[in-house]
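Changelog note: in this version the structure field was regenerated for every chain. One regenerated record is shown below for reference.
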Amino acid sequence: MRLPRTFLLGAALAGAALVLTVLLGFAFALGENVGMQRVRTAETRAAALWTMTPTATATSTATPTVSPTPTPTDTATPTEVPTASPTSTFTPTPPPPATPTPTPAPRVVVVRSRSISFRVPAGRVHQENIPLRQGDTLRGEFIVHAADIDFQLVYAGTSPPTVLESESRVEGTVTFRWTAAATGPYVLRFDNSYSFFRSKDLTLTYTVTRPEY
């Protein structure tokens, strides 16, 4: 009697399933057993370690005494001393120098004026005496109409007289000017003493002026 293939295939599959179930159950039981042994082993080790660990004696820990923090008292605030601010020093500006008032020019007055003509003979001297004060000015000119003559301006207030100006053998028109440094007699000398034969004709004009303040 031959069984159908379908039946045989189902039986085989059922058997295989049964075997697989048995194997799985065995494996599960084995794994649970191994797991329980590991747990027990771990518990045993833990108990041993607990027994071996010395119980720590509780020592009284000294509680540090907290010192009270001193409350800051009111400190004296330093009084701010006002600093004297530098004051501007007033430096007076010096006044400008006073401009000197110019002294007015003195008024000049003519105290003497003269114009003369004269002849000086050969071998002779002609003198014109003119008194002057200190500060007076004598100015003038003379004309030698022919030939020449010697001329001198002399201060006769000393002994011997002081020759202030001297010209030799002048001819034509000659001008002169002198301001008296001292009061006294002054002399205009026309000297023809060096001539033996010839007289000299001259014209003299002069003016004396004096400043008045």
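Spot check on this record: Residues 71 and 77 are 17 Å apart (CA to CA). The chain has one helix and six strands.
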